[in-house]
């Protein structure tokens, strides 16, 4: 990897960062203050598109710089619009960093209430992407199904379209304050665990359990099957057959989520 | 043991499902005691039934024993069905365990009337009280109030519940007399009046004493059955308007009548549920609550029924072409809200965005307005393409042709769609 510190402002640059939010904000800080002509972003150690004409520059994450960007943003646009940028980052959509960067640049460009400029393509894209991520977060708040384990942990596995776990802790910690719970992103292999005090990010090592012959009965609480069945039964009985509309049903509860929904099993 | 519980749940969920309200929004109950749950947000639909309705609450009857004989109700005395009753503890356990697993936002508890109104209401209240006190439950509770129950019980219900409702069910007094001979309108209006007063009083109190207890923070709602008593859309919406204005109701629900018997006072078994009509009524309700329309503009003696083919906003616009075209770059928000194809959010976006540059078709499309409708009613910064001088009938035809294909591919049902 080439690292260069002297970059001419007109030469296209690909900015390499560590993949974290602070890393991205640091990259924004450097690119903005050094007036780089950014043509794209890439994550260190992750393969990225090669652009032979662009120079690559590696940014070292610096919390102080990241904070300055974040605090600066808060002075320019409402908090909700700052959070929108974070949600976009969590979308993991290829190329979204450049949109975030361009949007931040626009927010700093001196217009009054720049976040209302829906005619600006970056502002619009940030709005729309953020909405998609927010919707996924909202879906997870709806679709998480906890199962009570024998040692009184409420466990839920999820596979969201976007990386929404960081957006979930507040809601679940407030709501389920008096029970231990764990929400685990099976695709991204990490989760959040709450012990009635604080929420922690954790990763699980399933390799030990793979060979063990523990049966479901041992893992789950005695009452778990009863309540799952009662819920399935309830779901069946609130349906009004003469109003049946499966199309609408699937639109609200897309099939890809069914495998974790007790009532759809 | 668990078999009996399953059977009760089957019977008592089945009997409760015709009450369409499933909202769990509008409260502000926090998890203040590190207990279970909260009801501060706009409410979450945790799943949807196969008929596409939101499931957010555990909606059950405490019992389907009833001393009344309302013709439109499965629970009516004369109906030969299996009866069941939950114990207070059973409802509490179901609610707690469903909530802990993130299945629900809370409980919606209703009941047939057994013995008398007060006896029934007392049981409903004790479920709510037990949840709030013994179980530190802060999720959403909606209690049905039984017509004729005492003020004391109504007051206690308000202390524990987030929302209270009395279902009026039949929008006209004559219809009510015919179909629900045991009920009288006075018994339904009285609790609403009492609750309205109490809600206002406690709100005032909480302004002075920050720690004043919550009283039905999500307010009152009611439901009307649609298509059971030959009523017009005007009857329904004018009654709804009275409830919104006169009793400060948070929501009025409209529930297409699902035929349940061959009683000749009612549509017979096998008649279709008026789903489309129900949808048009909800659209009208939205126009009244969020778009600044007066009910009289939408439904009056000249137009007592909504147009099934087009939504009520478009219908109003076509009857009032003199209001248009509206210039989106200069018009007031109130006027922009009246344009077919522009929703509340888009209207606000337009007003925000036009300060930066004059908006043309492209901008409007990106903002998300339905140009295929709106184009006949607006001018913007782009040259007028093809809107000039069409008659109402022509516009109606154009829009219908376009949306008919959409309508068909949507399986014939559209919801909350003004676009
Ligand atoms: S009083 Fe209520 S439960 Fe009883 S028959 Fe009438 S509507 Fe049904």
From TrEMBL, chain A:
Domain DUF4130: 97-263
One Pfam family, short name: DUF4130
InterPro entries in the cross-refs: DNA_repair_put, DUF4130
Domain of life where this protein originates: Bacteria
Name of this protein: Probable DNA metabolism protein
Organism: Dyadobacter koreensis
UniProtKB/TrEMBL annotation, chain B:
Superkingdom: Bacteria
Repeat recorded as keyword: no
UniProt xrefs under SUPFAM superfamilies: Radical SAM enzymes, RuvA domain 2-like
Keyword Nucleotidyltransferase: no
The entry's keywords: Iron, Iron-sulfur, Metal-binding, S-adenosyl-L-methionine
Cofactor: [4Fe-4S] cluster
Domain Radical SAM core: start-end pairs: 61-240
Signal peptide: none
InterPro entries: Aldolase_TIM (IPR013785), DNA_rSAM_put (IPR023874), Endo/Exo/Phosphatase_dom_1 (IPR051675), rSAM (IPR007197), rSAM_sf (IPR058240), RuvA_2-like (IPR010994)
Any one GO molecular-function label of the UniProt entry: metal ion binding
Pfam entry (one): HHH_3
The protein's name in its UniProt record: Putative DNA modification/repair radical SAM protein
């Amino acid at each position: 990897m080439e690292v260069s510190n002297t970059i001419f402002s007109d030469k296209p640059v690909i900015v390499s960062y560590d993949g974290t939010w602070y890393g991205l904000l640091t990259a924004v800080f450097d690119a903005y203050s050094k007036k780089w002509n950014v043509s794209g972003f890439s994550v260190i150690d992750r393969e990225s598109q090669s652009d032979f004409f662009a120079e690559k520059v590696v940014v070292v994450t610096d919390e102080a710089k990241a904070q300055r960007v974040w605090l600066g943003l808060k002075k320019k646009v409402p908090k909700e619009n700052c959070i929108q940028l974070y949600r976009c980052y969590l979308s993991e959509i290829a190329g979204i960093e450049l949109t975030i960067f361009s949007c931040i640049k626009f927010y700093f460009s001196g217009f009054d209430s720049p976040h209302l400029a829906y005619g600006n393509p970056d502002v619009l894209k940030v709005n729309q992407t953020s909405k998609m991520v927010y919707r996924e977060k909202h879906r997870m708040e709806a679709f998480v199904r906890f199962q009570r384990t024998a040692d009184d942990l409420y466990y839920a596995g999820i596979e969201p379209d976007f990386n929404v776990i960081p957006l979930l802790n507040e809601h679940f910690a407030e709501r389920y304050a008096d029970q231990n719970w764990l929400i685990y992103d099976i695709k991204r292999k990490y989760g959040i665990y709450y012990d009635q005090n604080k929420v922690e990010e954790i990763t699980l090592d399933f390799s030990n359990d793979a060979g063990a012959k523990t049966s479901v009965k041992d893992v789950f609480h005695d009452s778990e099957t009863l309540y799952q069945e009662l819920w399935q039964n309830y779901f069946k009985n609130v349906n009004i057959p003469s109003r049946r509309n499966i199309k609408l049903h699937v639109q609200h509860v897309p099939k890809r989520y069914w495998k974790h929904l007790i009532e759809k099993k | 043991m668990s078999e009996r519980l399953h059977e009760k749940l089957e019977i008592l969920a089945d009997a409760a499902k015709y009450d369409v309200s499933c909202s769990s929004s509008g409260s502000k109950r926090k998890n203040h005691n590190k207990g279970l749950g909260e009801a501060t947000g706009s409410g979450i639909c945790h799943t949807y039934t196969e008929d596409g309705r939101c499931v957010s609450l555990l909606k059950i009857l405490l019992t389907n024993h009833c001393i009344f004989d309302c013709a439109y109700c499965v629970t009516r005395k004369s109906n030969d069905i299996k009866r069941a009753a939950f114990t207070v503890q059973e409802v509490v356990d179901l609610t707690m365990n469903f909530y802990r697993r993130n299945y629900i936002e809370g409980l919606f508890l209703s009941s047939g009337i057994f013995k008398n109104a007060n006896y029934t209401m007392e049981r409903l209240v004790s479920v709510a009280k037990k949840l709030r006190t013994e179980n530190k439950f802060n999720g959403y509770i909606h209690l049905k109030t039984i017509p004729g129950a005492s003020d004391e019980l109504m007051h206690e219900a308000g202390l524990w519940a987030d929302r209270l409702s009395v279902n009026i069910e039949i929008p006209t007094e004559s219809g009510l007399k015919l179909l629900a001979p045991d009920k009288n309108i006075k018994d339904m209006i009285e609790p609403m009046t009492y609750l309205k007063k109490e809600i206002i009083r406690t709100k005032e109190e909480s302004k002075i004493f920050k720690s004043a207890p919550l009283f039905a923070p999500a307010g009152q709602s009611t439901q009307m059955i649609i298509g059971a008593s030959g009523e017009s859309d005007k009857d329904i919406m004018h009654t709804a308007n009275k409830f919104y204005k006169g009793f400060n109701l948070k929501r009025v629900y409209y529930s297409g009548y699902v035929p349940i018997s061959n009683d000749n006072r009612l549509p017979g078994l096998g008649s279709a549920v008026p789903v489309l009509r129900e949808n048009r009524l909800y659209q009208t309700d939205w126009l009244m609550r969020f778009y600044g329309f007066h009910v009289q503009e939408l439904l009056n003696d000249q137009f007592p029924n909504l147009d099934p083919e087009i939504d009520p906003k478009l219908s109003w616009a076509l009857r009032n072409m003199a209001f248009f075209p509206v210039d989106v770059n200069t018009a007031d928000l109130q006027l922009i809200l009246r344009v077919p194809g522009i929703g509340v959010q888009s209207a606000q976006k337009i007003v925000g965005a036009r300060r930066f540059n004059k908006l043309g078709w492209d901008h409007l499309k990106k903002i998300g307005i339905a140009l295929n409708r709106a184009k006949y009613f607006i001018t913007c910064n782009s040259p007028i393409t093809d809107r000039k001088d069409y008659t109402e009938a022509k516009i109606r035809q154009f829009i219908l042709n376009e949306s008919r294909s959409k309508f068909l591919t949507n399986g014939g049902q559209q919801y909350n769609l003004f676009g």
